[in-house]
Amino acid sequence: MPLNFSRGRAIASLWQYLARWPLSRIWRLAYRVGPVVYRFSRRERDVTMTNLEVVYPHLGATQRTQLARESLRHSTATMLELGHAWMAPHAQVEAHILAVHGRDKLDSARAEGRGVIVLAPHFGNWEVLNFWLSSHFPFTAMYEPPKIVELDPVIRQGRERMGALLVPTNPRGVAALLKALKRYEAIGILPDQEPDWGSGVFAPFSSVMPTPLLCCPNW
Known about the structure:
219 residues, 9 helices
């Protein structure tokens, strides 16, 4: 526990410190730290290489290695940017959002008395999309506490600061999502979240995907 506490406190302090940095500076830092992650984080490197082999079997080893290095640079930038999305002043984060595509569909659905399900990847700009959605609409999203327990209040405060409601990945959380839909609100479901067994029935969504709601930040 002491080790996890110190680790969690260090990560939270880093996010708070980086929240004061301009994004361009964070990206320059990620450019330098990314190669270090590639070299010393065996798990991240192996997972990335395995995924690239599956997705791009026609590429040679050299090309996949180059893609893996670039991917881990971006992953590093994503982790370093969390402090900005969660802790930087509201106006500053909002100012970096250059365009929102698909808002008319969200507005139309609510005007017609229909709820909206936002399916979004749990990486990249999800934190910015969550920030924007909860700034403009009643928004409920599933949330699974982090493995480092001490980071839970930091993440919760960052994600809920604009009004989002976080619910657990269990039957109670699923029920809360359904109630939000009945109120014609928006809900967020991330592909890597798997509610407990007994929460419902696993079912594939339509293969015809609707026009997505995208939030395009300037980073």
